[in-house]
Amino acid sequence: MASLCTLLGLCCLAAPLVLALPPFKSQPEQVHISYPAAPYSMVITWTTFNETESVVEYNVWGGKLFDLMAKGTSTIFEDGGSEKRKLYVHRVTLSGLRPGSAYVYHCGSEDGWSDIFYFTALNETTSWSPRFAVFGDMGNENPQSLSRLQKETQVGTYDAILHIGDFAYDMDEDNGRIGDEFMSQIQSIAAYVPYMTCPGNHESAYNFSNYRNRFSMPGDTESLWYSWNIGPAHIVSFSTEVYFFLDYGVDLIFKQYEWLKRDLEEANKPENRKTRPWIITMGHRPMYCSNDDKDDCTQFESYIRIGRNDTSPPAPGLEKLFFLNGVDLELWAHEHTYERLWPIYGYKVFNGSADEPYVNPKAPVHIITGSAGCREKHDGFIPEPRAWSALRSTDYGYTRMQVLNHTHLYLEQVSDDQYGKVIDSIWLVKEKHGAAAWL
Ligand SMILES: [Fe+2]
C-alpha cells in the first residue's frame, strides 16, 4: 500500500511536467501567397510550430489534383518576446505557371497538409486590367472590412491585394500569438491572391522582425522595399518607417533612397515606361493628410515628403524624387480614414483642369486609405479641409483600384459602415506619363 501511495505521489508530481509540454504542431497554418516579381511564378508561405518539410502539391484547376509538386525551405523565426517562441516559416516558389490559369494547391508535408486553396497565375502581358483591393491598418481586433474582403476575394473580385502597413496591432504582442492569429484571419484572402505588403509603425518591435519574417515579398530586403510589375503598372513598395526608427540604422534611409532612385530610373527608361506607363507607389505614412492626431502630418512637416535635416548627413525626402520620376499615383495609409487629394506637389494643387482635375493632372495623385479597421478605431479630421483635400471619409472601408489600360486608372472607395456602398470614385486619365506629363 505504502508503495502504491509513493507511486501515486510520483505520478502527481510528474503530471504537471507532462502537461506543460506544448502541443505538437506540424499542421500548416497562416497560408498566404505573394508574387515574387519573376514571371510565371508564385510564392506560397505558411507556418508550422514543429519542423517539417516544405512542399506544395498543385495542378491547374480541372487537372488531376496535386499532380505537380514543388519543394522549398523553412526558416526558424524566433519572436523577440520573453517566451522566445519559435515558428517555422515555409516558403515554396512555384514556377513555370501558365499565365491566367487557375491553380489548385495545398501545402505542408507528410506530417500534415493544409486545406485546399486556389489562385490564378498572373497574366504576364501589359495589356490586361488588373484589379486590386487596397487598404492599410487592419488588425486582429475590429477588422471591420475583412469579411467583405473575404467574400469578394473568394468570388474573384481581385487579382492582388495591397496592404499598406500596420498589421494585427501588433504582430509581436502576446509573444507573437497576435501575429499568428492575424495571419490565420487573413488566410481567407491571402491564400487566394497575391497579398503584397509594406511595413508600418505597428511592425517596429524587435526591428520589424515579425514583418520581415512572416511575409515573402520580392527582392532581397526582407520585404522592406521592392517593386514588381503587373499589367500596365509598375508598383513600388517602400518603408516610411526608416525615417522614424533611426535606432535600427540611419543608413536604411539612404539605402532605400538610392534603391528607389535606381528603380524609378529603370522604370522610366523609354522602353519600360512605354509598356508599363503607370508608376504607383505604396508607403505607410502619408506626405499629406488633414487628420487631427497629435503625431501626424497635420501637426508636423512630413519626413517622408521633405526628409530630415537632423541626421548626418541630412536625409532626403521623397516628394521631389517621385515628382521628377513622374510617379502617377501614391497610395498611403496610417490615418484611419480615407482621404483623396487633388493632384499635388509642394502643397500646390495642379489639377488637369477645373472641370476635369484628374484628366492629365500636372502632379501626382495621393490617396490615403487606412480605414480597414483595427482596435484603435477611427481617426478624426481637422474641421476645415485643406485646399488640397478633395474628399474625406471617416467610414471604415477600403479602396478598389483597376488599372484599365495605358491611359485609364479607376479608383473607388467602399464604405463598410454603409454596407459596401461606393462613397467615392475617380478616373485618373493620363495621355502622357513620366515627368513630361507635368509640363
Ligand atoms: Fe500607422
Description:
The chain is an alpha+beta fold. The N and C termini lie far apart (98 Å). Helix 2 packs parallel to helix 3. It contains eight helices and 28 strands. The N terminus is likely disordered.
Concise overview:
19% of the residues lie in helices and 31% in strands. The protein has 8 helices and 28 strands.
Main sheet attributes: strand count, strand direction, barrel closure? 7 strands, mixed
Ends distance: 98 Å
Q: Outline the low-pLDDT stretches.
A: 1-14
Q: Which molecules other than protein and nucleic acid are bound?
A: fe (ii) ion
| Structural class determined from secondary elements | alpha+beta
Strand order of the largest sheet: 15-16-17-20-24-21-25
Helix content range: 10-25%
From the alpha carbons, calculate the radius of gyration and give it in angstroms: 23 Å
Counting DSSP H or I runs of 4 or more residues, the number of helices is: 8
